[in-house]
């Protein structure tokens, strides 16, 4: 069993089918490195219990795992309190009403947003489904707005469907929904659940403008420990795509939510936006995550051929991580899904055109390069030329290691995070755990925390001992064998050094 199943990372959503210690341990062993907690459903106590199990699983498997909190955001929902099954017939009409006290039926669907009548015009397309699940039409329905009556919206049903369950998401194609990106509920969750748990990533649902990210960051900065949390903007609609460049500049990473994008965009356009968005993330050196890749594995042991190709293409397009939603949350085969996706990623990585990618990145960065950028690209070039089996990078903020990963080396990058001692005048504390976990979403980057007694920029002797620990770790996990070459990137004094070492034994 290789320690590095794939360079591409896997984010798994924990839920009913994947929240026991055994299930999470199996997911970690299969290759999950980030656990996503989706607050669209389940309360804080439920997620807390899952998180405690995750901590036990991490201890048991000795595998690091980061935590991502996913906000609800301005999600439109059909409210079906009594959970009756609703049958909708093609060409019949149905009314969407903001009066939530009414019972849901095949004639009337109460929704959680009062401004719909003002936002839509006759002819607009509305999609209703459970978790926007697949394109599978039997559980989801397309509606066309025929008229607006006061607060109510009257629609014609475009396909017969049966809606079952309590929660249906409503999506209006290409229409601005006037609800805040960070709802009061989201803020409450971040305060009461996110802050005490020191979450590593915040996935900001329905990011539409750079301002959304700025407001979230300002809110996080007031929550003490969360000032270090990285914000990933989740792009779910055309509005987000139209402001993509400025959102990318503001955010720490991007999640392309293809389920929603596929509803907001004509299907034939989705691939184009995926390619251009991933390219922009790669050039900016910010992690890009792709969702909705193997939907059919929610109920099946194997993905479809199209899905398998799709996962491989996401890797070839440059994504850092693949995010699994329903497949691990409530799917029947969470562990198999993770290992299948990991295997497909590993195959695609073998044929990833690193040479072309490297040249393109260097050209994009331009000259003169910054000091760090030139060291990072040199380390990768050297490692490829001498066929090194691994690049070891000493870092305290994690930035140097992320920059090396930006050039997509063909071998794993072991980032040895050297904890820094800091004080707030009252007590001393070590930083480093955040930085180590946050690299778990970057392709090819594998963190390990060094002993805090070894400062990062000190004498060469302590560096030697930390290097020995890193090499032993590499050997134990099977990536480094005797007579291999290893490229080491570290700071000595004020300058950064890249050196090549050949192992004798």
Protein architecture, described:
The two termini are 22 Å apart. By secondary structure, this protein is an alpha/beta fold. It has 3 domains: 9-73 and 180-350, Phosphoenolpyruvate-binding domains (TIM Barrel, Alpha-Beta Barrel), CATH 3.20.20.60; 87-172, M1 Pyruvate Kinase, Domain 3; 354-502, Pyruvate kinase, C-terminal domain (Pyruvate Kinase, Chain: A, domain 1). It has 17 helices and 24 strands. β2, α2 and β3 (66-70) form a beta-alpha-beta unit. The radius of gyration is 24 Å and the shape is elongated.
In summary, what is this structure?
It is an enzyme of class 2 (transferase). It is built from 17 helices and 24 strands.
Task: Detail the topology: elements first, then pairings.
Blueprint: E1 9-13, H1 21-30, E2 32-38, H2 44-61, E3 66-70, E4 76-79, E5 86-88, E6 93-97, E7 108-110, H3 116-119, E8 125-129, E9 140-149, E10 152-157, E11 161-163, E12 167-172, H4 184-194, E13 201-204, H5 210-221, E14 230-235, H6 238-242, H7 244-250, E15 253-256, H8 258-264, H9 270-284, E16 288-291, H10 305-316, E17 321-324, H11 326-329, H12 334-350, H13 354-365, H14 371-385, E18 390-395, H15 399-406, E19 413-417, E20 420-423, E21 428-431, H16 433-438, E22 445-449, H17 460-476, E23 485-492, E24 495-502
Parallel strand pairs: 1-2, 1-17, 2-3, 3-13, 6-7, 13-14, 14-15, 15-16, 16-17, 18-19, 18-23, 19-22
Antiparallel strand pairs: 4-12, 5-11, 6-10, 8-9, 8-12, 9-10, 20-21, 23-24
Helix pairs in contact: 1-2, 1-12, 5-7, 7-9, 10-12, 14-15
Family: Belongs to the pyruvate kinase family.
Pathway: Carbohydrate degradation; glycolysis; pyruvate from D-glyceraldehyde 3-phosphate: step 5/5
Protein name: Pyruvate kinase
């Amino acid at each position: 069993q290789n320690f590095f199943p794939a360079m591409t990372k896997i984010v798994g959503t924990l839920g009913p089918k994947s929240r026991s210690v055994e299930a999470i341990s199996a997911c970690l062993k299969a290759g999950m490195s980030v656990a996503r907690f989706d607050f669209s459903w389940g309360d804080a106590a439920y997620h807390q219990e899952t998180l405690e199990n995750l901590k036990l699983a991490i201890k048991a498997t000795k595998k690091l795992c980061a935590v991502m909190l996913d906000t609800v955001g301005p999600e439109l929902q059909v409210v079906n309190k009594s959970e009756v099954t609703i049958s909708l017939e093609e060409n019949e009409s149905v009314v969407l009403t903001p009066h939530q006290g009414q019972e849901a039926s095949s004639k009337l669907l109460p929704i959680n947003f009062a401004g719909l009548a003002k936002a839509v015009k006759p002819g607009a397309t509305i999609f209703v489904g459970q978790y926007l699940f697949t394109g599978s039409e039997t559980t989801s329905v397309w509606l066309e707005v025929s008229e607006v009556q006061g607060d109510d919206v009257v629609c014609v049903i475009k396909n017969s469907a049966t809606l079952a369950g309590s929660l249906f998401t409503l999506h209006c194609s290409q229409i601005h929904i006037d609800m805040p990106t960070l709802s009061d509920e989201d803020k409450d969750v971040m305060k009461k659940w996110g802050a005490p748990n020191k979450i590593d990533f915040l996935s900001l649902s329905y990011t539409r403008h750079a301002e959304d990210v700025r407001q979230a960051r300002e809110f996080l900065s007031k929550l003490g420990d969360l000032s270090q949390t990285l914000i990933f903007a989740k792009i779910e609609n055309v509005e987000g795509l139209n402001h993509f460049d400025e959102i990318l500049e503001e955010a720490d990473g991007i999640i392309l939510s293809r389920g929603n994008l596929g509803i907001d965009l004509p299907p034939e356009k989705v691939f184009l936006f995926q390619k251009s968005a991933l390219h922009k993330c790669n050039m900016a050196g910010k992690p890009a995550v792709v969702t909705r890749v193997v939907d059919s594995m929610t109920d099946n042991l194997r993905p479809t051929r199209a899905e398998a190709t799709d996962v491989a293409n996401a890797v070839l397009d440059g994504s850092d991580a693949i995010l699994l939603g329903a497949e691990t949350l409530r799917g029947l085969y969470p562990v198999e899904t993770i290992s299948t996706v990991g295997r497909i990623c590993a195959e695609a990585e073998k044929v990833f055109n690193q040479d072309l990618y490297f040249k393109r990145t260097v050209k994009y960065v331009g000259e003169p390069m910054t000091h760090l950028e030139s060291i990072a690209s040199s380390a990768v070039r050297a490692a490829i030329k001498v066929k090194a089996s691994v690049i070891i990078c000493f870092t305290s903020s994690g930035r140097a290691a992320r920059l090396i990963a930006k050039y997509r080396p063909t071998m794993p990058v072991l980032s040895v995070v050297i904890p820094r001692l800091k004080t707030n005048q009252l007590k001393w504390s070590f930083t480093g755990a955040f930085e180590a976990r946050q690299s778990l979403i970057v392709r090819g980057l594998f963190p390990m925390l060094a002993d805090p007694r070894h400062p990062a920029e000190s004498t060469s002797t302590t560096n030697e001992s930390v290097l020995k620990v890193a090499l032993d770790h590499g050997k134990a996990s099977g990536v480094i064998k005797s007579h291999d070459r290893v490229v080491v990137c570290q700071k000595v004094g004020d300058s950064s050094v890249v050196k090549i070492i050949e192992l004798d034994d």
